[in-house]
Amino acid sequence: MAFVDFNGVWLAYNDELLAQGHYAVEDIHLQVDEGEFIAIVGPSGCGKSTFMKLATGLKRPSQGTVIIGGKEVTGPLKITGMAFQAPSLLPWRTTVANVMLPLEIVEPYRSSFKQKKAEYEAKARALLQSVGLGGYEDKFPWQLSGGMQQRASICRALIHEPKMLLLDEPFGALDAFTREELWCTLRDLQAAQKFNVILVTHDLRESVFLADTVYVMSKSPGRMVVRREIDLPRPRDLEITYTPAFTDIVHELRGHIGAMRKQGVEIAQ
Amino acid sequence: MAFVDFNGVWLAYNDELLAQGHYAVEDIHLQVDEGEFIAIVGPSGCGKSTFMKLATGLKRPSQGTVIIGGKEVTGPLKITGMAFQAPSLLPWRTTVANVMLPLEIVEPYRSSFKQKKAEYEAKARALLQSVGLGGYEDKFPWQLSGGMQQRASICRALIHEPKMLLLDEPFGALDAFTREELWCTLRDLQAAQKFNVILVTHDLRESVFLADTVYVMSKSPGRMVVRREIDLPRPRDLEITYTPAFTDIVHELRGHIGAMRKQGVEIAQ
Amino acid sequence: QETAVKFQLDWRFEGPSAFFLLPVAQGQFKAEKLNVTVDAGNGSGNAVNRVASGTYDMGFADLSALMEFHANNPTAPNKPVAVMMVYNNTPAAVFALKKSGIKTPADLAGKKLGAPVFDAGRRAFPIFQKANAIGKVEWVSMDPPLRETMLAKGDVDAITGFYFTSLLNLEARGIKAEDVNVMMYPAHGVKLYGNVIIAGEEFLKKNPEAVKAFLRAFTKGAKEVIANPKAAIAVVKERDGIINADLEERRLKLAIDSSVATTDAKAEGFGDVSKPRLALMASQVADAFQTKGRINPDAVWNGSFLPTAAERNIFAKK
Amino acid sequence: MTRKSLEAWSPWVLLVLILLVWQGICSAFNVSEFIFPSPARIWEQLLEYKAVIAGHAWRTFWVTMAGFAIAIVVGVLLGFLIGSSRMAYTAFYPLMTGFNALPKAAFVPVLVVWFGIGIGPAILTAFLISFFPITVNIATGLATLEPELEDVLRVLGASRWDVLTKVGLPRSMPYFFGSLKVAITLAFVGTTVSEMQASNEGIGYLLVSAGSAMQMGLAFAGLVVVGAMAMAMYEFFSWIEKHTTAWAHRGSQSH
Amino acid sequence: MTRKSLEAWSPWVLLVLILLVWQGICSAFNVSEFIFPSPARIWEQLLEYKAVIAGHAWRTFWVTMAGFAIAIVVGVLLGFLIGSSRMAYTAFYPLMTGFNALPKAAFVPVLVVWFGIGIGPAILTAFLISFFPITVNIATGLATLEPELEDVLRVLGASRWDVLTKVGLPRSMPYFFGSLKVAITLAFVGTTVSEMQASNEGIGYLLVSAGSAMQMGLAFAGLVVVGAMAMAMYEFFSWIEKHTTAWAHRGSQSH
Ligand SMILES: Nc1ncnc2c1ncn2[C@@H]1O[C@H](COP(=O)(O)OP(=O)(O)OP(=O)(O)O)[C@@H](O)[C@H]1O
Ligand SMILES: Nc1ncnc2c1ncn2[C@@H]1O[C@H](COP(=O)(O)OP(=O)(O)OP(=O)(O)O)[C@@H](O)[C@H]1O
Ligand SMILES: Cc1ncc(C[n+]2csc(CCO)c2C)c(N)n1
Ligand SMILES: [Mg+2]
Ligand SMILES: [Mg+2]
After folding, report:
1. Which segments within chain C are labelled E, that is strand?
2. Sorted alphabetically, which keywords does the UniProt record give (chains A, B) (predicted)?
């Protein structure tokens, strides 16, 4: 059975919209296997963030079911980690204290937090080291550059060893060069720990470089219109993005979206 | 003679920094011909925006001279139009009123603004129409999406028919699809009106697609380290970005930057 | 063991407050096993109010204010009662500048008079008006310390106020006493009583001995004050460092001469009242203040706590 | 729907609740009027003296408005002066804070000496107490002007004056309107305090005169009336704020 | 360098300038002390009565601090209550505005009836006048919490209480400290106003007592002292604000 299972999921943001039949996402069917890395691309406002809220349990579907790890989702899940488009670090906490935040909330860490604080802190520092933030652990978020903040945010999403990592455009605000560095960091972390990843992005190259499967969403009401498996061999090097094979996939996806934009019609899955 | 001529330009932001020898940009030499479209790429903080401030006259060089249109720049120039990374529209003015702003400031429009208001308004509306904002002229900026605002911002930079358009990462905040649409809009406007463009960007594909010449800047102190003429034929279609010739140039520029980042050494121009 | 007595003055620490501060400082209250604390006040009305609410055990207030309270709050529990007369003649007076041409009360008709709304002289003015057949006057309201300034500046034609307060305040504003025409109420047919010592009903019931002791000690203190005003002012100065000792000494002497050691007081006996005069005042106040009900003088006054006449015989014979 | 209307009614519900508790305590402990009047008693007095109260309220109202009008003019000008230069801002700000911390009631006697009893001191006290937030807000609005907005004009070679009128002025409008609603409530306090010390009319006069006649119910009725007037004006200016500077409130949220 | 130090000195320069002009006017027109005392006269009186003034100032100071401490406790709790729920916010806000628009001076007589002359009414008036900005700021800080910061915790299954203590509380600290400096100046006004009506001590008593004795120089010296104390406390709290919530001020600017 799939690890994540969206079964005919519809969501309207409130009762009024529901009554009018304005759904943010419609009829989502999607299965993700354990350890799979999927990416979701689509134009602005198509419902990508909405999809993420459903996957984390921040929102309950108006219709249909979301099953994760064999259980129906009814509220925020502790087995997920999430990083948002903005790093959303708490500015009054140091970087390492920010990363340790989930351990203060999520069981089993929570109840042993006071006793094992030193141990947990060591763990957080090691994780920060692994994304190249060694030496910045005791700085405040606003003393770091945007890219560094984003890395810390990803560490925070991973510290409690979630089975699933949800990333909503985590690299959107970064410059191209920093972004590519973080792609490699994420690729290596996932290769090492084998957690599930759902990545929402605008950037087709990013989705193709990182994901096992790319889903394309259509604009409101949001539906999954294309599913494309990426059969590029792993481990993938950044150089791969300049190969014709890579460019072709990106071009193909670009075509789907262009068609959607121009005609506004849906393309069969 | 070149239309824009940077001759050994250095800039330190204030007297203290000057005394300490901390320059934001160092020893910039650069010539731009009339009607040429140049792009400047480089990592964050390398001094791209500083370069723009020098080109508009918002900042005076600490050393060296900036000559534009044959005259040394000593203060803000009325022959330039500028669009910033953020659209920076005035939220209390409608879109068309925002676009007309330069006409209230710059001569010869200023003195005839009251009499010829209707004429100028028609001109602004036509310009907005040409970038696909027909029907949104009387909306307020905050009623438009980010991409629409950016288009309006570019219109504002063009309304007084400047000889030179300065764009500081105007597409940075947009999603990939909207961004590509605006590339085409800008390409067509420049092809039609033949003004000079200096475009600052993070996105190598953007710079290669749009510019005649790409300059790569090194990180602090900012210097121009690479100059690359783009010999792709014009008019260029979006499809060109998926050709190997295009990808190769991007890859080559990527290599320069990567080398700079890794070793921190300067590459001879 | 000592009985604590919280005492509320009618006004700030000025010369006349020596009557209460001196026995505290010199131990007359201590000797009677009383622990008296004296607080400054901001008007007789407020003093009556605070004793009535039980915040203070005893106080010093204008008798007409007390009468008004009784008439307007017939059902209030713990109504204060006057237990000793201090200002046998009301210090209320009308002041006009000589240069204004106002010489007699009758000249006040149609003139502009200034005073706070709660001023005893202003509230009792209808009685004064009737006694002297004065026509209608116009009132301007202001905070107490402003009225003398307004008179000095000529914004009002006359003011009402306590004789010893306004006269000295006018002097502080550069108006000499000889340039002021003072019409004291008692000299113009208005023989109202002035300030009395009041005590709450409940306090009287619970501590009748303490009240008696208080009045005894007060009487001893008053004798000292009258005999030696300069020393009395030194006590006040200790309590409030900013007062001008010379000025307050004069104020105290004026108060003693015009309101405490008067011919009427000598006749009725220090601290006591004359029943007919009290009854007359009760009916006059009820009319002038337009109270809700009539005023029963026996409910307002209780002379049974007074020291003996011998003890109260403090006025030096001259 | 229900939730929304419940929210709209909630202040009234709370008000009624508070009144009930207050009345309950007054009745249960038989608190006499001169200690703390009960709502019922205040209401009674309000009805009994409604004509008198209305007259005083009207006086307080227009005097407040006059002082407030001066506060707007002076506050805006001073705010512009202070906000348009960094130096002026650092120089004036601490002194203005010190001035703002003085009890304005203490100035009334001085004002009375200058202007006599009547509307003069009341108008000026209302002005003195309420211009400060206006000035501070205008100055802050100008001082926190985003440099990007300014650059938009500077790039075009605009003069300082152009920048001030085309960007500074409109940009500080939301701050201005935001300050008005605060300032108007202060202006009412100023008028009332001044009237308490020197006036023959107005709610402040009523408070003192009712207080000295032991009509605490009437005094509290007067208080209720100023509070209500101030609240109404607050709501009025907050309505104006919403409708004139909608852009400032919707700035962040896209449609 | 010179420009910077000039800026640091500018408030003092301005102060001296104002004093000179004031003195000049007083001397030139020979304004008598009881109309408006000159700075020289105020200074003279300040020196003459320095011991007395110091005593009154100390009383006013600690009474204000006591009232302010209560205002902090009550203001914060109420702010939390109001800010943590939308409904509470809409219900309480208008009533609090109305209450804030009442002249607190009018409550002093009532407070005296309850607590007697002395520190009671002064502490309570200081509290009543200064808790409002604290409450409003805390409530606003909580009400404007960015949903993203909240979601960071909600995603982890955090309880409402977790969200309040881990995000709400620290997030509202800059608002809290920002309000303290405003509230402290109001607290001084409250104490002084109350002392003017009901006290044997304190700067407020000094004002009234000196005012009625026509020692206007002394009264103004008292005013200057409250103003100075309030300004000092303002600077103190604004220093605390800068040093405890540095993150809020550097948030935007990267280095
Ligand atoms: N809180 C909300 N209440 C009502 N409608 C909402 C809400 N949030 C989003 N929507 C609507 O739901 C739709 C999908 O929004 P969503 O944020 O999921 O888009 P997105 O794909 O994440 O866009 P972007 O790429 O800009 O982040 C949009 O039409 C949006 O207007
Ligand atoms: N106003 C300023 N005062 C002092 N230093 C400044 C100022 N603005 C920029 N700098 C410094 O000058 C250098 C160049 O900054 P600049 O803004 O030109 O970079 P940039 O290339 O535009 O970066 P980005 O891609 O992030 O926009 C940086 O080191 C920056 O810290
Ligand atoms: C020494 C002295 N001076 C003036 C007054 C004036 N005054 C202030 S309040 C009040 C009583 C009103 O009910 C009066 C007459 C006083 N009492 N004692
Ligand atoms: Mg989104
Ligand atoms: Mg830049």
Report:
1. 3-8, 34-39, 58-62, 81-85, 92-97, 112-114, 138-140, 158-162, 180-184, 195-199
2. ATP-binding, Cell membrane, Membrane, Nucleotide-binding, Transport
pTM for the predicted model, two decimal places: 0.83
Q: Which ligand is closest in space to the CA of residue A222?
A: 1
**Which of C53, C77, C146 minimises the CB distance to D112?**
C146
Identify residue E221 by its one-letter amino acid code: A
Instruction: Tell how far the Cα of E174 is from the centroid of ligand 2, in angstroms.
Output: 28
In chain A, residues with a C-beta closer than 8 Å to the C-beta of B177 are 43-44, 202, 257-258, 261
Q: CB of C137 within 8 Å of any CB in chain D?
A: no
A244 in contact with B, Cβ within 8 Å: yes
User: Two tokens at C228?
Assistant: 């030696």
Q: Residue A159: phi, psi to the nearest 5?
A: -55, -35
Structure ipTM: 0.81
Q: Is the peptide bond before C208 cis (omega within 30 degrees of 0)?
A: no
What's the gap in Å between B25 CA and the centre of ligand 2? Answer: 9
Asked if residue B173 lies in contact with residue B85, where contact means CB atoms within 8 angstroms, the answer is yes
Q: Whose CA is nearest to atom 6 of ligand 1?
A: A13
Structure tokens at B145: 């999406």
* Amino acid letter, B107: E
**Helices (H) and strands (E) in chain A — how many of each?**
8, 10
Q: Whole-angstrom Cα distance, residue E79 to residue E85?
A: 10
Chain-chain contact of B84 with D247 (C-beta, under 8 angstroms): no
Of C71, C56, C88, C55, nearest in space to C272 by CA: C88
Residues 140-159 of D with CB under 8 A from E: none
Q: Token match 């190969």: residue?
A: A243
**Contacts of residue D164, Cβ cutoff 8 Å, sequence gap at least 6:** D80, D84
C-beta atoms of A143 and E255 within 8 A: yes
Three-class SS of residue B177?
helix
Other CB atoms closer than 10 Å to residue D128's CB: what's the count?
25
Cα(B179)–Cα(B199) distance, integer angstroms: 14
Contact between residue B68 and residue B56 where contact means Cβ atoms under 8 Å apart: no
Is residue E190 within 8 A of residue E111, CB to CB? The reply is no
Rounded CA separation C237/E86 (Å): 57
Q: What is the DSSP letter of E167?
A: I
Interface test with B, best of D148, D150, D153, D156 (most B CBs within 10 A): D156
Q: Provide the CA C269 distance to its chain's centre, in angstroms.
A: 17
Amino acid sitting at position A180: E
Contacts of D108 in chain C (CB under 8 A): 143
D255 to chain E nearest CA, in Å?
18
Of E218, D192, E230, E198, the C-alpha closest to E207 is: E218
Packing angle between helix D169-197 and helix D216-244, nearest 10 degrees? 170
Structure-token match 């007595």, residue found: C5
Q: Name the closest residue on chain E to residue C57, using Cα atoms.
A: E116
Joined together, the tokens standing for residue B232 give 């792709």
User: Angle D135-D140-D142 (CA atoms, 0-180°, nearest 5)?
Assistant: 100
Structure tokens at B167: 């764009």
Half-sphere exposure of E172 (CA within 13 A, CB side): 29
Interface contact flag, A244 B248, Cβ < 8 Å: no
Tens place of pLDDT per residue across chain B (269 aa): 688 899 989 998 888 888 888 888 888 898 999 889 999 988 777 888 888 888 888 888 988 999 988 888 888 877 788 888 778 888 889 999 999 999 998 888 888 889 999 999 999 999 888 777 888 889 888 878 777 888 899 889 888 888 888 998 888 767 777 788 888 888 988 888 888 999 998 888 899 999 999 999 887 677 888 899 998 888 888 888 888 889 889 889 888 877 776 544 333 33
Q: Which residues, in sequence order, are CB contacts of A111 under 8 Å at separation 6+? A: none
For E67-137, where are the E strands, in sequence order? Answer: none
